[in-house]
Amino acid sequence: MTTTTSTPAWVEERRAKAKARFAQTGFPTTRQEEWRFTNVAPIADSNFPLAHGAPQHAASLVNSVAVPGSVRLAIINGQFAAGLSDLSALPKGIRIASLRDGARDATDGIEQHLGRVFSIDTHPFAALNTSFLDDGVAIMVTRGAVVETPIHIVVVTSGDGKGVVAHPRTLVIAGANSQVRIAQTFIGAPGDVYFNNAVAEVVVEEGAIVDFSTDQRESDKAFHVFNLQVHVEAKGVFASHAFSTGSRIMRHDIGIGLKGEGADCTINGVYLADGDRLMDTHTSLDHATAHCTSHEIYKGILAGKAKAVFNGRIIVRIDAQKTDAKQTNRALLLSDDCTINSNPQLEIFADDVKCTHGAAVGQLDEEAMFYLQARGLNRTEARDLLLHAFAGEVLDGLKIPELREQISATLFSALERDVRASTALSPGGL
Amino acid sequence: MLDVKNLKVRVEDKEILRGITLSVKAGEVHAIMGPNGSGKSTFARALAGHPGYEVTEGSVTYKGQDLLEMDPDERAREGVFMAFQYPVEIPGVNNAYFLKAALNAKRKHQGLEELDAMDFMALVKEKAKILDIDEKMLLRSVNEGFSGGEKKRNEIFHMAVLEPALAVLDETDSGLDIDALRIVSQGVNAMRSPDRAFIVVTHYQRLLNYIVPDYVHVLSDGCLVRSGGRELALELEEKGYGWLEAAPRLGSGQAVVGARK
Ligand SMILES: Nc1ncnc2c1ncn2[C@@H]1O[C@H](COP(=O)(O)OP(=O)(O)OP(=O)(O)O)[C@@H](O)[C@H]1O
Ligand SMILES: [Mg+2]
Predict the structure, then answer these.
(1) How confident is the model over A152-206, as pLDDT tens digits?
(2) What H or E segment, with its residue span, contains residue A322?
(3) Cα(A401)–Cα(B197) distance, rounded to whole angstroms?
(4) pTM for the model
């Protein structure tokens, strides 16, 4: 369905506001607390032009990660691509539109929520995305609908070898007591240099259950920034599972506001980095009301000269009594040259709460390695097994089995890549 | 099958084995006894190729090959097996999955076809039955939360599935209850064959009533100080290790095996 109506005034307005804001702040610098360990100068200096049109390999990239039996939504260089999407399995109880069409047709909730789930004042890259607000996908789950079919968004970015920037955007509104599983895969052609600056906003209305998985497998030369911002209303349940194996510089900002009593959320993730790559995850959990629970597990595997940043912020507001928040963050360093800056940041203003956090950074257990080798596994096989066991806790939480298989398999090949780099250095390595 | 000559091993700058010479032929069972801290596990772990155990002198020839040149996994695939005194807990790694990977690594090395899940499960069930192993142990993570005795039994179970040519059992009897000791011993005895050898490290003569050794050796302070037949174990049981201190020590490089048979 194509209409020729021009962009609605409210979209223009939000864009202009974000543009003005970004013009004021510019790209963040390491002088800012939130960006202390992540230098985005290579992104700021790249000056990539906005991506246009479909790249050569779009179809094969989309197909390479297709999840059988799902509804597939392709976002190519920031634009919804109907031709590469597959809505044949679209069940009742869910409406899907390109963000552009949805905004133009005044589809329920879009005007109300788009750009409103987060503040452009605290998220410069999300402000930048909003200043180019143009297209993406909007997913509206009808009140009470239980959607069995997984919804898979495939985000492809590529300038066919030339550097480009894209600002893809996703909006999910899960109506009261609805249920849906959504996955988002970020992918680009291997070796391509580009900047993907994505934003997803999710509104979980009262009693709704939303499961949201992210598979970040961008080109290992790419810059990848992703803001996932979520509102969870009373008794709503939200889970994020993020797997990151790609990009040269990655920054994830995952912000979840538990806005109504009895809401529950999970923020889990696994990231893998080698070479001189940098992976930064900032999570922020806002316990704004009472009786909410949150569970967070992040696991990192670093090799080569990789750097990682993990900042897990938990705010428990004065009214958020009986909060139960648990955060765990672990990292395995496979070489002496990789580093992690890990920082739990608990800000607790209520007095009757339970908050626990634990962080551990270590090496592979050499006694376990010896045990596995002494039974016949070579060093790489033994390492893969231990690393898979390490990631398993998070991997097992993935609610879409086909996606779990797919990620599990790539995790293995990414591990092989990472491990090869570090095996050469370690004693007993081949 | 195994020829150890004047083996000296250092751990973290401390010389633990000070010249071990031992020859094991196919079909034989050798028991190694000796006081705590005398170096029995060091010997076992050095044979298995633990990277923390530095061989400073001597040689180990296994089936005509230089064992010391091989990585631990190569040794395993060539048929050397060590049952750990303290089996390692590995959370998140499924016992059966691991064992299948280990068995197939070995089969591949031998040029045999890898077993698929069905054939493997059939094999494993048969072995589990012989050793009276609860099949639930197969579904759990390797050794995680296993009792002391269960860990030891799991080691013997791994051995039964991997069918090594040379098995080094490091205090597998410690921690086993009376019934388990009998079952495990029967499992070991069932595997005795003309082309397989065992080195059994133990503190207790009782085990040797079940697994009857051809030779008994006493390791003390990093040296083999006495070798003999199974009656040596009875003598030790009676007199302890003290009387050996006074006895003349066998020098390194001397052929000790069979000296007293
Ligand atoms: N990693 C290590 N670092 C320092 N010393 C070690 C290490 N491993 C072993 N040793 C020392 O080497 C000596 C021999 O230890 P080993 O474990 O071989 O003895 P053992 O004969 O098996 O004793 P047990 O009967 O108690 O099992 C001991 O003094 C022990 O403390
Ligand atoms: Mg010992």
Answers:
(1) 999 999 999 899 999 999 999 999 999 999 999 999 999 999 999 999 999 999 9
(2) none
(3) 47
(4) 0.86
Structure tokens at B25: 């032929």
- Counting ligand 1 atoms within 8 A of each CB, the residue from B10, B38, B84, B218 with the most, and so the one to mutate, is B38
Structure tokens at A73: 């939504």
pLDDT > 80? residue A66: yes
The number of beta carbons lying within 10 Å of the beta carbon of residue A64 is 13
pLDDT tens figures, A266-303: 999 999 998 899 999 999 999 999 999 999 999 999 99
Q: What is the pLDDT of residues A367-423, one digit of tens each?
A: 999 999 999 999 988 988 999 899 998 999 999 999 999 998 887 676 666 555 444
Helices (H) and strands (E) counted in chain B, each on its own, are 10, 12
Which amino acid, residue B167? A
pLDDT score of B243: 72
Q: Minimum mean pLDDT among A137-151, B41-55, B125-139, B158-172: which range?
A: B125-139
Across chain A, mean pLDDT equals 92
Displacement of CA A34 from its chain's centroid (Å): 18
What tokens does B110 get? Answer: 């031998």
| Side-chain-side CA neighbours of residue B54 (13 Å) | 8
A84 pLDDT higher than 50: yes
Kind and range of the H or E run holding B32: strand B29-33
Beta bridge partners of A245: none
Cβ–Cβ below 8 Å for A368 and B88: yes
Contacts of A379 in chain B (CB under 8 A): 71, 73
Alpha-carbon gap, residue A36 to A67, rounded angstroms: 38
Report the C-alpha dihedral over residues B182, B183, B185, B190, rounded to 10 degrees.
140
Q: What strands lie across the sheet with B14-24, from one edge to the other?
A: B14-24, B2-11, B53-62, B65-66
Q: How far apart are CA A14 and CA B154, in angstroms?
A: 65
Strand segments, DSSP code E, in chain B are: 2-11, 14-24, 29-33, 53-62, 65-66, 80-83, 90-94, 141-142, 166-170, 197-201, 215-220, 223-228
In the DSSP assignment, the letter for residue A344 is E
| ipTM of the shown complex | 0.93
Number of C-beta neighbours around residue B125 at 10 A: 13
Closest alpha carbon to B244 in B226, B223, B224: B226
Q: Does residue A334 contact residue A303 with C-beta atoms inside 8 Å?
A: yes
What local confidence, expressed as pLDDT, does residue A412 receive? 67
For residue A374, the surrounding DSSP H or E stretch is: helix A366-374
Up-side HSE of residue A85: CA atoms within 13 Å toward CB? 21
Looking at B77-127, which runs of residues are DSSP E strands?
Answer: 80-83, 90-94
Nearest CA in chain B to A381: B101
> CA of A330: how far to CAs of A53, A271, B219, in Å?
41, 11, 43
Let me know how long chain B is: 261
Q: How is chain A split into domains, by residue range?
A: 9-364
Q: Side chain identity at A428, as an amino acid letter?
A: G
Candidates A371, A375, A377, A395, partner chain B, best to mutate (most B CBs within 10 A): A375
CA dist., res. A273 & res. B62, Å (int): 41
- In this prediction, residue A139 carries a pLDDT of 96
